[in-house]
Amino acid sequence: MREPELDRTDLAILKELQEDGRLSNVELAEQVKLSPSACLRRVQRLEADGVIAGYRAELNAARMGLGLRAFVRVQLKSHGAADIARFAEDINAWTEVVRCHALTGDMDYLIEVLVRDLDHFSKFLLDRLLAGGQVADVNSSFVLRAVK
Questions:
Q1: Which contacts qualify for 3-10: CB closer than 8 Å, 24 or more apart?
Q2: Exposed e or buried b per residue across 97-136, where buried means at least 16 C-beta atoms within 10 angstroms of its C-beta
Q3: Alpha carbon of 23 to those of 18, 42, 105: distances in Å?
Q4: Which end of the chain offers a freer environment for a tag, N or C, measured as fewer CB atoms within 10 Å?
Q5: All residues at 6 or more sequence positions from 62 whose CB lies less than 8 Å from its CB, including other chains
Q6: Domains of the chain
Q7: How far from 148 is each of 18, 140, 145, CA to CA, in Å?
Q8: Could you give the C-alpha distances from 108 to 17, 129, 137, in angstroms and in order?
Q9: What H or E segment, with its residue span, contains residue 68?
Q10: Are 138 and 70 in contact, with CB atoms under 8 Å apart?
Q11: What is the mean pLDDT of the chain?
Q12: What is the helix, strand, coil percentage profile of the chain, to 5?
């Protein structure tokens, strides 16, 4: 499948929707200086082409009592297909894990974890991540503040 060609107007539409995904078509059209019908056609094309993958609510973790965000780099003991599949299954079951990316380099995965506090993180690390015996090495960093 070829990559869709995006012009300035498409990029402007994407920028506006990333800032506020709840804009009405009329509001979006005004922002990008298109007629509502032309704007709607472009948005529908961007959706059909898979450029816009979906719409979702951005949650305020702190307001939900989840005040500690950590990035955990993980190296597995074994890289067999079954071990990787089991690790992925575990990761997808753990509600504390917000995102998980497989990496190149000295660590296998980068996991973003969202928890209440340091005690909750400790329980997650010891009782979930390390308890399965799949992990060879872990390196954690805690977010002080989001810059961008």
A1: 4/45, 4/46, 4/49, 4/51, 6/51, 9/34, 9/42, 10/42, 10/46, 10/51
A2: beebeeeeeebbbbbebbbeeeebbeebbeebbeeeebbe
A3: 10, 15, 41
A4: C
A5: none
A6: 8-48 (1.10.10.10), 62-142 (3.30.70.920)
A7: 13, 20, 9
A8: 33, 14, 10
A9: strand 68-76
A10: no
A11: 96
A12: 40, 20, 40
DSSP state of 128: I
Q: pLDDT tens-digit profile of 77-118?
A: 999 999 999 999 999 999 999 999 999 999 999 999 999 999
CA dist., res. 111 & res. 122, Å (int): 15
pLDDT value for 92: 97
Q: How far is CA 119 from CA 54, 93, 124, in A?
A: 34, 20, 9
Q: Residue 74, Cβ neighbours under 10 Å: how many?
A: 22
